[in-house]
Task: inverse folding
């Protein structure tokens, strides 16, 4: 596609660098911005650059934050001895949205993946080990992807922590709520039979 | 969704103002930009603001342009007496991409739509009438949407130009290439029977 203006073609180029945005979508976004006032577009572009330039990462958990320590790590009502290990900020958001977790987090920044050249040294593992030592962490909840790389990372961490007085747990794997049995894959189904639990009615709140 | 940082939440807000981008997609874009260097994000945000601020519209055809007159209007190899009337820049691009049109354009900026409060005075109609007078335009090709509003606009223009020595044509309507007859709507099919043409083999190039 040839654009009537270099300015348009540059802007389309920049938008289509983003994931999931092709040339046609990029053009639609550009045409939308052309209809807005220059002031609105200035706010748009400033907000995005400011976000990248001023963003900070929490010294303790490596989650994004506005200051040196994030709100979760600073909170006095949260259990600082219970640490949930996740890959990235999106996982923190997902767990926070359940409103059922009252511990803190540690963002690894990825998982060990020899194929992509990501070794343990490229992840926030040293700081996790130090944190466990210093803060007297009692439980480490591994909430990593159920993939080969995720499992490798959990295995690596469990080896590193074998001598430490910290319990390592992982998220329960099984049939999802609302999932129909016939569509569940064999591995998940087999494991959820093997790890079956006594019946509990989750709908009735216990005290 | 509550974000761990005001910067992130502002950026997500700005992205989700764009058409077709919801909160989840916006977050994905923001997380992608967070992984880029600040310099790359500066280029992204600058390009977009520059586009909006510096964009010009061609004095003659109202298409976007880098200077006061667009390349198409300035071209000496194009037929300046044949004007294709379109709604917006995207339609110009679509027709240009066919590489089968050698005339020039006139961007109306929309179609007459009383429901949305768009009257003839909000469109680039006065300049079109002046242009027809001044440049001695011989043919006006109406390439507007086949909707009530598009048809109203064509009707309005044809009335305005009834006394002028200019031929008004519209794009051929009919069964699209590759379209199966059974899926064509009745109006299109009925009209394409009524406006049938002598057989021509388009695949054999004539001189």
Result:
């Amino acid at each position: 596609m040839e654009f009537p203006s270099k300015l348009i073609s540059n802007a389309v180029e920049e938008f289509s660098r983003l994931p999931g945005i092709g040339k046609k979508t990029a053009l639609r976004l550009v045409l939308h911005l052309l209809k807005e006032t220059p002031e609105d577009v200035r706010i748009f572009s400033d907000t995005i650059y400011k976000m990248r330039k001023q963003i900070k990462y929490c010294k303790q958990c490596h989650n994004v934050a506005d200051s040196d320590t994030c709100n979760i790590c600073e909170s006095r009502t949260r259990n600082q001895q219970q640490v949930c290990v996740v890959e990235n900020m999106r996982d923190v958001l997902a767990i926070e949205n359940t409103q059922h977790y009252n511990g803190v987090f540690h963002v690894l920044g990825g998982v060990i993946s020899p194929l992509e050249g990501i070794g343990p040294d490229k992840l926030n593992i040293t700081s996790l080990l130090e944190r466990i030592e210093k803060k007297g962490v009692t439980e480490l909840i591994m909430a990593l992807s159920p993939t080969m790389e995720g499992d490798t990372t959990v295995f690596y961490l469990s080896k590193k922590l074998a001598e430490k007085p910290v319990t390592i747990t992982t998220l329960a794997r099984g049939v999802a709520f609302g999932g129909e049995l016939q569509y569940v894959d064999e591995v998940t189904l087999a494991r959820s039979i093997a790890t079956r639990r006594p019946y509990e009615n989750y709908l009735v709140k216990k005290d």
Remarks:
- Chain B has two domains: 6-54, 77-175.
- The helical segments of chain B are 6-15, 23-35, 38-54, 71-74, 89-98, 126-135, 148-160, 186-194.
- Strands of chain B lie at 56-57, 64-65, 79-86, 103-107, 139-142, 167-170.
